[in-house]
């Protein structure tokens, strides 16, 4: 199992290219199941989750090919992939594959919409809470599907096709919004999704579906309306930049000090996080090439944060922000409202000398003047990278074990950081 060794203390200076968003690429790839024509996606990141989803889609009969590397392309440039689901050969998504990644459950929407049946294993994914699938089940039932749970599988049938309906989510869910929106594109009649997720990745998916011929209105607001169409066609779509990767590297620079251009990053995708970072003392400027992050020698100011659905502060940046706050000049309170078990990084940050006290869904972080390197364990994707951020500022050596979590969602992290002066290396084994 690979680990990552970080020797702390170096400032970050240079350019970090921002990859396509994992959380947009995954539903976009799944959308290929909705048509028998080719969906071409540009700016797809090279990630373990993308590779795993490719395997799952192949199992359903999707042909997958990647453009070769062209002259002048950098190893960090996104890849262009072509997905063709000419014929769906299998409507089962098996436990062995779906249990490794939550987003793979979302195939249930397109499969039932196009094939009128699907059998999908209950999902896995990052262990950050119970993560039930009741909104998906209720949503598909509102579109006329019959649903049963059999042997750990959700079995959904709509022998006469799905019909449009009203779906109101009790709580904002990104995955359920993606799934019902995709399913509704091929349903008969109109679907209204109320309390829909407003995340940029939902908007990106809606844009792609529209270029495939879907009729969707209201994406980016809490009410999305979809008029079903009999069929969708192929399209070309570029995945939007990863706002979580952007925020992560911005926090790394705020932690170490330095001056970095996050190339291709878009401020409008993470305004709340950028405002919070500014309040900690980081300078952030928008340029035509991306976002510039700068922190001078002044200390890190403590700032309180509460995670919220978009446009609020994202839960996927909570762990990274906590790492930054461990070295703030005072106490900050971080409240997690999306997932009930997303503080597993706390005990690992404590190994580096962080002072954090958790009470229910709020962590109080008392900033310290120095962290000290230690061996630590990555417990989930964003927790892993919070340990890298802390390690970059800690005195001495930090070894992060179980980095396969990190490889799910960060493309060539050690290359991107070492190009900017970080002393970081992967140890294979
Ligand atoms: C691949 C991907 O895009 N993952 C993101 C997606 O996950 P994901 O789509 O799984 O997260 P959701 O937005 O669905 O989860 C939000 C909340 O709703 C609850 N819930 C969800 C569905 C359901 O049927 N019942 C239910 O109770 C969840 O347990 C959680 O408490 O959005 C999360 C919230 O921004 C992010 O942290 C994840 O990185
Ligand atoms: C929690 C995440 O991913 P997933 O929903 O796939 O577990 C994440 O991207 O931070």
Automatic annotation (TrEMBL):
UDP-N-acetyl-alpha-D-glucosamine binds at residues 102, 171-174, 316, 338. It catalyses: phosphoenolpyruvate + UDP-N-acetyl-alpha-D-glucosamine = UDP-N-acetyl-3-O-(1-carboxyvinyl)-alpha-D-glucosamine + phosphate. It comes from the Bacteria. It is found in: Cytoplasm. GO terms for cellular component: cytoplasm. One of its GO terms (molecular function) is UDP-N-acetylglucosamine 1-carboxyvinyltransferase activity. Pathway: Cell wall biogenesis; peptidoglycan biosynthesis. The active site is at residue 126. Pfam families: EPSP_synthase. Residues 6-417 form the Enolpyruvate transferase domain. Keywords: Cell cycle, Cell division, Cell shape, Cell wall biogenesis/degradation, Cytoplasm, Peptidoglycan synthesis, Pyruvate, Transferase. The modification 2-(S-cysteinyl)pyruvic acid O-phosphothioketal is found at residue 126. Cell wall formation. Adds enolpyruvyl to UDP-N-acetylglucosamine. NCBIfam families: murA, PRK09369.1. Belongs to the EPSP synthase family. MurA subfamily. This is UDP-N-acetylglucosamine 1-carboxyvinyltransferase. The lineage of its organism: Bacteria, Pseudomonadati, Pseudomonadota, Alphaproteobacteria, Hyphomicrobiales.
